[in-house]
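Researcher: We plan to redesign the surface later, but first we want a full-length starting point. Tokens attached.
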């Protein structure tokens, strides 16, 4: 039998190249270039002196590349001050939003009561509203909210309200998205766990804090990453609600670099890259939990 097939040559196993697959790869490659080009262009512009750009234009071969724009932005825009401003707004906002949203999601998914489905439907409908639609009601809430006057934190020349209006209003809007995501994740947690804790004598807050929240760590990490990015990059609400420029976040620091008659785009490019560092670090630190939180629970609810 081996002699029969000795003279038969084996054909190489080659995949046939399909035109549709080639077109798909070309399209995806073009999309990658389209998305990454602004980033590379910002890096390129930030390393060029502004005088060279004015003389030769943006589309020209560079003669000098240095980090002078980064050093100038750090000092001229008072970057450490606005970093601290942003953290004072973002960190309490993320923590408060996760706490309130997880409470609502816990009540709507782990207990059966008359209006739990209606509440979830309202939160789901809230996700469909663009933020510009609710400018007037949120601004009315801002004008009638006295919580920001409760006190302030003084650190050297820094003075920050304990509860800023920007935090409170952002919690109300972003909390809708967080509640929707956390409720879908909590639906994967069996109700027998909550019922067993009730039988053992634990109260509702104890079950939420000691039982449910530890099980939701991937979802909480994913939402913390998204919430941090949303609040950190916000410019519109900070500009609309915060009355004084020394209380505004780092996005306003970038806007302050625009002069009336001249705009140093090289300096702004360096500032934008420096401002993007904290969200990137947060994503890198929580990347594993971020992916797990977005995938787990996606097949239920």
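Model: Full-length starting sequence:
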């Amino acid at each position: 039998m081996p002699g029969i097939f000795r003279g038969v040559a084996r054909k190489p196993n080659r995949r046939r190249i399909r035109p549709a697959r080639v077109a798909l790869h070309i399209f995806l490659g073009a999309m990658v270039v389209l998305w990454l080009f602004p980033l590379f262009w910002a890096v390129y512009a930030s390393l060029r002196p502004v005088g060279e750009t004015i003389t030769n234009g943006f589309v020209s071969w560079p003669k000098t590349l240095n980090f002078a724009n980064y050093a100038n932005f750090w000092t001229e825009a008072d970057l450490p001050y606005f970093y601290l401003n942003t953290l004072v707004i973002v960190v309490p906002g993320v923590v408060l939003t996760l706490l309130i949203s997880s409470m609502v999601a816990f009540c709507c998914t782990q207990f059966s009561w008359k209006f739990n489905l209606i509440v979830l439907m309202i939160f789901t409908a809230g996700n469909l509203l663009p933020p510009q639609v609710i400018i007037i009601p949120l601004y009315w809430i801002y004008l009638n909210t006295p919580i920001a006057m409760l006190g302030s934190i003084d650190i050297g020349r820094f003075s920050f309200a304990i509860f800023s209006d920007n935090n409170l209003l952002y919690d109300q809007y972003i909390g809708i998205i967080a509640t929707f995501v956390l409720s879908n994740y909590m639906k994967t947690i069996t109700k027998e766990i909550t019922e067993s804790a009730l039988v053992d004598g634990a109260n509702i807050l104890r079950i939420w804090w000691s039982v449910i929240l530890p099980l939701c760590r991937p979802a909480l990490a994913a939402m913390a990453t998204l919430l941090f990015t949303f609040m950190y990059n916000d410019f519109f609400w900070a500009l609309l609600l915060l009355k004084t420029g020394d209380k505004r976040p780092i996005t306003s620091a970038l806007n302050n670099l625009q002069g009336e008659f001249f705009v140093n785009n090289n300096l702004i490019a360096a500032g934008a890259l420096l401002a993007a560092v904290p969200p990137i670090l947060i994503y890198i630190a929580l990347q594993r939990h971020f992916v797990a939180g977005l995938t787990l629970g996606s097949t239920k609810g």
